[in-house]
Amino acid sequence: MSISSAIDALSSLLGDRLSRSKSDLDIHGQSETHFAHMPPDAVAYPTSTAEVAEVVKACAVHNCPIIPWGTGTSLEGHSLAPRGGVTVDLSRMETVLTINAADMDATVQPGVTRETLNTHLRDTGLFFPVDPGANASLGGMTATRASGTTAVRYGTMRDNVMGLTVVLADGRVIQTGTRARKSSAGYDLTGLFVGSEGTLGIITEITLRLQGQPQAISSAICGFDTVAGAVDAVITAIQMGIQVARVELVDTASALAVNAYSGADFPACPHLLVEFHGSDTAVTEDAATFGEIAVDHGGHGFEWSSKTEDRNRLWKMRHDAYYAILASRKGATAIVTDVCVPISRLADALLETQTDIAQSGITGPILGHVGDGNFHAILLIDPTSLSEMVTAKALAARMSKRALAMGGTITGEHGVGMGKLNYMQAEHGEAWAVMGAIKAALDPNGLMNPGKLIPPTN
Amino acid sequence: MSISSAIDALSSLLGDRLSRSKSDLDIHGQSETHFAHMPPDAVAYPTSTAEVAEVVKACAVHNCPIIPWGTGTSLEGHSLAPRGGVTVDLSRMETVLTINAADMDATVQPGVTRETLNTHLRDTGLFFPVDPGANASLGGMTATRASGTTAVRYGTMRDNVMGLTVVLADGRVIQTGTRARKSSAGYDLTGLFVGSEGTLGIITEITLRLQGQPQAISSAICGFDTVAGAVDAVITAIQMGIQVARVELVDTASALAVNAYSGADFPACPHLLVEFHGSDTAVTEDAATFGEIAVDHGGHGFEWSSKTEDRNRLWKMRHDAYYAILASRKGATAIVTDVCVPISRLADALLETQTDIAQSGITGPILGHVGDGNFHAILLIDPTSLSEMVTAKALAARMSKRALAMGGTITGEHGVGMGKLNYMQAEHGEAWAVMGAIKAALDPNGLMNPGKLIPPTN
Fold first, then answer.
1. B1 pLDDT above the threshold of 60
2. Looking at the structure, do residues B258 and B180 belong to the same domain, yes or no?
3. What's the CATH code of the domain at B145?
4. A370 in any annotated domain
5. Could you tell me which residue, B153 or A304, shows the higher pLDDT?
6. Of the candidates A36, A63, A129, which has an alpha carbon nearest to the alpha carbon of residue A384?
7. Domain span including residue A40
8. How far, in Å, CA of B146 to CA of B110, rounded?
9. Which pLDDT belongs to residue B309?
């Protein structure tokens, strides 16, 4: 059998860094959302680009699927092994290779997490801004084109990856991009691999753009009478050009879940969590203007803080919100939606979604990176209930359809994986076939993370 | 002959919008730099996406090369017809299709120039920031991943194109991207076509991100004792996180050429042209800080102005600098270099280049978008002198090699075209072959703008 021949070859290559233990296979067959258990046949733990290349070559020879793995925090089943094969766990490639403080860039191995990088950067006056919530690996964040709370100010991984080292499906190793701030030297291969979800190759080094730590940071929580008021406040601020660093919507159901989970005391109303970065004067000016806009839209109870501990508590709470929501229904699993619409349509999208959720009978608290027009309904379902699954999937499908009708996208930041495959044709039409053609050109045997992102070929 | 059959088919399709007049062929066989005359066999003037698709299909049937044309202002021979064929001149597709002021985006046809778009936007409070100098078409700017004076603040075309309509090599029409601010829905095809130089398809619609017109703009010219001082001032400002909107280096030779061409009165020294955008307080604060940095590095004669007419004069002068330099040697043509390096290496790159130019005997004034680490030496040569051409090309090759050794790129913004082909292997290695594989997947017969960007196949 081809997979078992590959495993034999990899055993010789990696020794005990090729694992077939039940616990390892179990862990690498799970995701954080509703997908069924789909374990690989083995897990490889390479420690260098050269070793990844050897692993890929061995798998290519034996026609064995290859699934890259970072921290396993993706939400669309990206790292599952629906066709078996070898999961390449990159967690042992966790070295921060270089930090060029003068050029504000750093090169890391893919297993370095965003928090680890920021710890390394602490004394440089720099930080890496992209923050999807989970302490994800930078390789995984690159592969899924992650973003999160700070994208409204600093952009997504698309904007913050300058260059990559990639092991291709045939084991060739390429470098993409440079450390220059811009380039017109041919096709943007860096951009092509960012968001390619392991389907075109395995990312083994990443050069990231860094940001200077702002002189001042000010953050606040503000309750609103209605979701519409909160969203209209955001829309007004964005359209006025106020440079928010983060602006997050937490709806009433999410606020109550957070209270129960982490002992917070949010009033039972929708909230915005906002943060400004800049000079002392700019931050003060922006916060004041935003405060006025909020009050105009039914905001209340505004308290600004520039203390680090207040801020850390605030964002810890936000980042725990997904787990708080999951915990709010015992034994539940989640279908996490991720639509993103033009900002002018955000209020419509949110309110129609809330009505739709209410009518469906499914519990679905909403969290949103609303400055980008991006929000998530966390649809809680009993994993043993087929009818809940069907109802929730239909709800998620209507959300996607609504986003597309508004000029938006089916996934703002979570990626396609297995979970969004069914919506790709509707979003891209013939362009999805073009993605398939690119895939076929770079991975003709379809071994790189099969069953994800591209049109099914069999 | 295949090209003549294509032309017959296109004549039926387009009537007098297919031109074979000598003047039309001549115009479309020229570039603004040193390339030889390479006219197409015919010029097509389609007026819609559907018509472009018909043109491409007819050419595909008859195996006829297709060369897209915007305004012909590219600098690397992108729009020449080295293998003949049909030039698709998109200048009649010049409609601004939609402006979504609330979402700060606009969709245009490819023949709309950046100045035309900004004229349309005048009453909206918005503007399109990318400014390569020439009043280029937005289609051409997209296809070459153009940038220019404002990229240091607003990014390049990579950062400002949200979505595209593209006619592929087989005549299929695809849409890429959405109007949402971010998406993780599969491969970034928008990013792949931005900078693809017409080699993967013809761009027929572009959705662009717009910016709010800043509350305040302040600009200034400042002389420096030395280029090193000017560059060190820029590096310090960038590293301190001061948000310049533009920062341009004009070296002594360029300043003198501008004086002669447009009656300016620059002192005979290097200059920085800088501009800040933002709130009144931010602009005042940034300008003051920048002024102090400049003085510390030998800057003098600083005068700030927030008057529109002063600013327009300043940037008109900067944009005319290329023509001023060309005019400074009668009958000369130019080899325009375009390296971009990490900011920490910019002073080294510039000073080594100046020494190299001085030793070569070639006249080569330097202009730079120095906030990005990007600069151009305009190497003036007698087009009839083979020895000058050889010397200048060797100089340009050394500049590229130096940029690569410093972690930079052979082209910051002009693209590859025909002029940078010889350096692509050095910059990309095996990744250049990957570009060739993508090209082969999307244009297997190699008809889309042949002889540009990708590795030669015959």
1. no
2. no
3. 3.30.465.10
4. no
5. B153
6. A36
7. 2-91
8. 14
9. 84
Q: Which residues of chain A have pLDDT under 70?
A: 1, 458
Binned at pLDDT 50, 70 and 90, residue B310 comes out as confident
Report whether A140 contacts A76 (CB < 8 A). no
Chain B residues near residue A424 by CB distance under 8 angstroms: 185-186
Structure tokens at B18: 């297919």
B13 pLDDT exceeds 80? yes
Residue B200 sits in the same domain as residue B224: no
Distance (Å, rounded) from C-alpha A148 to C-alpha A156?
8
C-alpha distances out from residue A278 to A216, A284, A332, B279, Å: 5, 9, 41, 13
pLDDT at A458: 59
The predicted-structure confidence for B182-218, as pLDDT tens digits, reads as follows 999 999 999 999 999 999 999 999 999 999 999 899 9
- Say if CB B191 and CB B200 are below 8 A apart: no
Instruction: With respect to residue B284, please indicate whether it lies within any of the assigned structural domains.
Output: yes
Let me know the angle formed at the C-alpha of A302 by A296 and A303, rounded to the nearest 5 degrees.
150
Q: Most B CBs within 10 Å: which of A76, A127, A172, A187, as the mutation test of the B interface?
A: A187
pLDDT mean over B316-327: 90
A257 in Cβ contact with A266 (< 8 Å): no
Q: What is the nearest CA distance from A435 to chain B, expressed in angstroms?
A: 6
CA of residue B114 relative to chain centroid, distance: 12
Mark whether A43 and A130 lie in a shared domain: no
Question: CA A214, A218, A223, A228: dihedral to nearest 10 degrees?
Answer: -40
Is A180 within 8 Å of B373 (Cβ atoms)? yes
Chain B: give the shortest CA distance to residue A211, in Å: 8
CB pairs under 8 A between A and B: 266
Looking at chain B, which residue has its C-alpha nearest residue A417? Answer: B186
**Any domain includes A427:** no
Residue B394 and residue B249 share a domain: yes
The whole-model pTM stands at 0.97
Contacts of B408 in chain A (CB under 8 A): 178-180
CA distances from B149 to A38, A176, B355 (A): 51, 25, 25
CB contact (8 A) between residue B186 and residue A424? yes
Min Cα separation A222/chain B (Å)? 24
Q: Are B234 and B370 in contact (CB under 8 A)?
A: yes
- Integer Cα distance of B333 and B328 in angstroms: 11
Flag if B413 and A188 touch (Cβ within 8 Å).
no
Is B36 a member of any domain?
yes
Same domain flag for A200 and A306: no
Six-digit token pair at B223? 């002389």
DSSP code, position A409: B
The pLDDT of residue B458:
59
- Looking at the structure of chain B, the number of domains it has is 3
Q: How many residues does chain B have?
A: 458
- Mean pLDDT computed over B321-335: 94
| 3 state DSSP class of B314 | helix
Chain A residues whose beta carbon lies within 8 Å of the beta carbon of residue B99 = none
What average pLDDT score do residues B301-327 get?
Answer: 86
The pLDDT of residue B82 is above 90:
yes
Q: Nearest by CB to A100, which of B100, B186, B342?
A: B342
Using CB atoms, which residue from B100, B188, B200 is nearest to A195? B188
Q: Residue A371's closest CA among A146, A152, A149, A150?
A: A152
Residues A239 and A300 in one domain: yes
For residues A222 and A297, membership in a common domain is answered with yes
**Which residues of chain A does B409 touch, with a Cβ-Cβ cutoff of 8 Å?**
178, 180, 182-185
How are strands ordered across the β-sheet holding B66-69? B18-19, B42-44, B86-89, B66-69
Matching residue, tokens 């309110």 = A351
Q: Mind listing the pLDDT tens digit for each residue in A137-149?
A: 999 999 999 999 9
CA geometry: angle B401, B81, B195, nearest 5 deg:
50
Cβ B212 vs Cβ B126: under 8 Å: yes
